[in-house]
Model the fold of this input.
Amino acid sequence: MVAKRDLGTARDRYHQSVDCGGKHDHLSCRVARDTSQLYEAVDIDGGSWFSKLTNVTIPMMTPIIFYNLIMGIINSFQVFTDAYIMTNGGPHNATLFYVLYLYKNAFQYFEMGYASALAWVLFLLILAFTILVFKSSSLWVYYESEVKKG
Done:
């Protein structure tokens, strides 16, 4: 006889099988972590809902906001598909984004050296913005495991 495994409720199976993907799921997963003690501490101290928001909720979400900011910066510099499929640069180059310009130089005009230089400039631009955000993250991103001295 085969023993049946207890799979729990449908909600438990859903949360076991579904990875927290996407921006909003990451935020809700992060806030859903064990924050009840922190909210209770704010209640005991007589804090308002705004105190809970600014002192518990937002600091707990800052690592995910940081990740989404980095990914948003990288993705914003790499806009290609929509402009290429819908308008191919548009009338009078109205939707000629940088990556589409790079693509056209490489594969339509066969200016591979120029396109390579454009790709390096794009890389350095993304790198500069990413480094800027990483350097500023120590001022606004809160990690539970970090203990600030001073």
Notes: The radius of gyration is 23 Å. The first helix runs from residue 10 to 17. Residues 89 and 96 are 4 Å apart (CA to CA).
